[in-house]
Amino acid sequence: MKKYLIKKTGKFYKANLHCHSNISDGKLTPNELKELYKSLGYSIVAFTDHDVFIPHNDLTDENFLALNGFEVEIDDDKRHPITTEKKRCHLCFVALDKDIKNQVCWHREKYQFGNAIKWRDKVSFNETLPDYERKYSPECINDMIKKGRDANFFVTYNHPIWSCEDYSDYSNYKGMNAMEVVNYASLYDGYPEKCEREYDDIIRRGNRVYAVCADDNHNFKEDYGGGFVQIKADKLDYESIAKSLKNGQFYASTGPQIKAIYLEDHKLTVKTSGVKTIRFSTGKVRACAVHAEKGKTINTATFTVKDDDCYFRITAVDKHGECAYTHAYFIADLFK
């Protein structure tokens, strides 16, 4: 019997989960961003302006869904002894319910910058709680992740390369829903922000973390339309999309499509758009790849899954080097 890892029913909806408007440090208004992304074939945008949670339910219509969110940055107060650069950690919080109104980890006076300062008075928060002080430490970062998850936010860990973070930093982070395997704005600016290695570092520690690609666009340049997720859901409404996000019913991409992925006993079948290579990697010293003949493409591959693989994930690579990524599927979760 086939076990579909991305469900067979429903429809794929193209989404950008990391986006900045002129509410913080972006160029375009939220409505202009909506129209831009609709013109590129997107159905969903998560508006994640820096440090202020401003819902945009008014932008949702029958063909477009606005997800409400915000991004936080936790900056180190000291500089690296070699590079002299400060490290930082950036997290996005995307609400999994359109009626969520309160921002978590709020401070009444600190942390907003740029246009976000003008929106401070528009933010709702739990007024009985003290101001939340950020500290660049695993304890604080993990506490912020937990508070976000507990308040029903989908929390992503963003662009570790741009943030000057390395294994000694992100290996201590726990509890996020997902991490960016590609941040397109950073990639566009010249940073090597393709983070498969960093993603493997995190999941090899047993963390069930999804993989996403996102734009992180500010629109002062062509930093948009390059990183997205395709979310499989029954319909385009907040509840359905949020459920699919939470349950990992999506894949990440900078171009290629993953049309189906399913297990039949221990045989894994992957169906894609026309690509050059389909890679199967595991948590062990074991990997496989199916390659197209020179000048041709393939759109399907089959791999054998072993009980001791720990996990596996798929990467499909087209002739331009653009990739589609599944998140890691852990053997212990699949063969219970």
Protein model, in words:
This protein is α+β, with helices and mostly antiparallel strands and 336 residues long. 16% of the residues lie in helices and 34% in strands. It has 7 helices and 18 strands. It has helices spanning 30-39, 138-150, 167-170, 184-188, 196-203, 238-246, 331-334; strands spanning 2-4, 11-16, 44-50, 65-79, 86-95, 153-158, 178-183, 210-214, 228-233, 250-253, 258-264, 267-275, 277-282, 287-291, 298-304, 311-317, 323-325, 329-330. The strands form 2 sheets. Strands 2, 3, 4, 5, 6, 7, 8, 9, 10, 13, 14, 16, 17 and 18 form a 14-stranded mixed beta sheet that branches. It has a 4-stranded antiparallel beta sheet with strand order 1-11-12-15, with no helix packed on it. A hairpin with a 2-residue loop joins strand 11 and strand 12 (267-275).
Helix and strand arrangement:
Layout: E1 2-4, E2 11-16, H1 30-39, E3 44-50, E4 65-79, E5 86-95, H2 138-150, E6 153-158, H3 167-170, E7 178-183, H4 184-188, H5 196-203, E8 210-214, E9 228-233, H6 238-246, E10 250-253, E11 258-264, E12 267-275, E13 277-282, E14 287-291, E15 298-304, E16 311-317, E17 323-325, E18 329-330, H7 331-334
Parallel strand pairs: 2-3, 3-4, 6-7, 7-8
Antiparallel strand pairs: 1-11, 2-9, 4-5, 5-6, 9-10, 10-17, 11-12, 12-15, 13-14, 13-16, 16-17, 16-18
